[in-house]
Design brief:
- The chain is of the alpha+beta class.
- It has a single domain (6-151), classed as Alpha-Beta Plaits, CATH 3.30.70.
- Helix content is 37%, strand content 17%.
- It contains eight helices and four strands.
- The protein has a four-stranded antiparallel β-sheet with strand order 2-3-1-4, sandwiched between helices.
């Protein structure tokens, strides 16, 4: 039996990208890779949500400035699906610190910072599940078929027997 390699991943387009009018360019890169947008909305993130989302940074010196930055403007929340979506998104996004990211990646092309680094992306399939549930209800996620999916990977990668 073929194994379906299709996954979901969360991307948060951060306030710096929104303020710099980069949302369209970011969405374009995700779609050009072959990822399918299945949820999209804008939001202002509150203290409780940020405390939960960045709990692993709560004891670090930069946590306060990170929260202020993330609350400085709205963010765009995106869920994508596709073959090995988490790994694909991480490659498109590039390393956390923009000054270390290769040209051609979102952070490599648009960021020089470790904090104001344009986007957040899920770092594993397990984390993606938790993060997607944090920001979206089941009713806000829209599965649908796209004809181009047939051309984005082999039958094995698409889960065809």
């Amino acid at each position: 039996m073929a194994k379906n390699l299709e996954e979901q991943s969360l991307i948060i387009v951060k306030p710096d990208a929104i303020q710099r009018s980069l949302l369209g360019a970011i969405i374009s890169r995700l779609e050009q890779k072959g990822l399918k947008i299945i949820a999209l909305k804008m939001a202002r993130l509150g203290d409780v949500t940020l405390d939960d989302h960045y709990a692993h940074h709560k004891d670090k010196a930069f946590f306060g400035s990170l929260k202020r930055f993330m609350q400085s403007a709205p963010v765009a929340l995106i869920v994508v699906s596709g073959i090995k979506a988490v790994q694909a998104v991480r490659l498109i996004v590039g390393p956390t610190k923009g000054y270390e990211a290769d040209a051609g990646s979102i952070r490599g092309d648009f960021s020089l910072s470790g904090q104001t680094n344009i986007v957040h992306a899920s770092d594993s399939v397990e984390t993606a599940v938790v993060e997607i549930r944090r920001f979206f209800t089941a009713d806000e996620i829209h599965g649908y078929s796209k004809p181009d999916f047939l051309y984005l990977g082999s039958e094995d990668e698409r889960g065809v027997d």
